[in-house]
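RETRY 2/3 - previous attempt timed out on the joint model. Re-submitting the same 381-residue input unchanged.
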Amino acid sequence: MPGMLTSNFTQKLLLFFETNARKKVIQKGEFLTREGDIERNLYLVESGAVRMFYLSEFDEHIIRFGYEGSLINSLSSFISEKPSEFFIEAIRKTTVKEISKADLVKLRNESDENLRQYIELLESLVTQQIDREIDLLITSPTQRLKRVLDRSPNLFQHIPLKYIASYLRMKPETLSRIRNS
Amino acid sequence: MKVKQGILIEELLHITDKAKATAVSFKELSEKELNAKKDPAQWSILECLEHLNLYGDFYLPEMEKQLLRGENINKDAVFKSGIIGNYFANLMKVDNGKMKKMKSPKDKDPANSKLSVLVIDRFLKQADKLKQLLNLGRTVDLSKTKVSISLTKLIKLRLGDTFRFYVYHIERHLLQAQKNVKPGQNEEQSRLHEPMRRIG
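RETRY 2/3 succeeded.
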């Protein structure tokens, strides 16, 4: 999710993306990562939007979005080098910059300061995950929406309502109704 | 129709495995090919699979629910078909590549919905779920345990017949889907058609 730390490491990372990353354009419906792939890249979304979801027998459960300025990848696969359990799909034409795990590891190991700030970045991610866990325990749809908007105020500008509804685990009609109330 | 439970389940697992293999082979095709149809009244590969997915959305949870409540029994116990259940199962059967023509209920009609290749992935997940349920079913009384049909809760079939009907239905639509594949493509597939020793 956007809302990153403006630490030096993040800035260095963005600079690295600027100078060294490979550009990739994918059309709506194309995948950055599919379930079963091993995630080897970290993506920075330049334009467009993607959704990350888990496919069960019955549904596509969206767990995360990436839009302009987001860093995104199938993180558990990236870390463990085991097959991804998630799909990352473009919901409209999207341009990303990608760097490899090797690039990231090199950057983070470059200095003690980089390593320290990388840890801070991870800590922030972990906290976001816990927030998300709480999201899912909350029964009130209004409250669920509020929590997500507090974290990402511009969500509706980037992502169609039906996908946000899936992320919030409610019907699109319910989400419409809450927004209009 | 009477058959030992263990043997029935083996047959159904075998058909399911073949269906999975066919679906996996479809992943080699382009999105265009997956959406193509030989004539407008027919269903494309993705439409066939999505139709099956829609049935799975109802039947898999239903079958699982009843399975978990069912009485235990030995796998050599004999399953006896019910009259209605046997009728439905036979309706679905594929015999030497021939099928009876039938209309589908409206809510299970996938035509005109926008379909992506994820339909195949979802089908494969449902197939794995089905296999899990079939395996559990070996030692559950398939004659006494009843499952509603999707059309109405008022009609319940024996679980053994539901399994048969459900698996033959999958076989039927995969055969239909395969007709959309051009000859010469995926040559493996023609061997998957060999008529199986049929029980009952």
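Confidence is low (pLDDT under 50) at residues 186-200 of chain B. Closing ticket.
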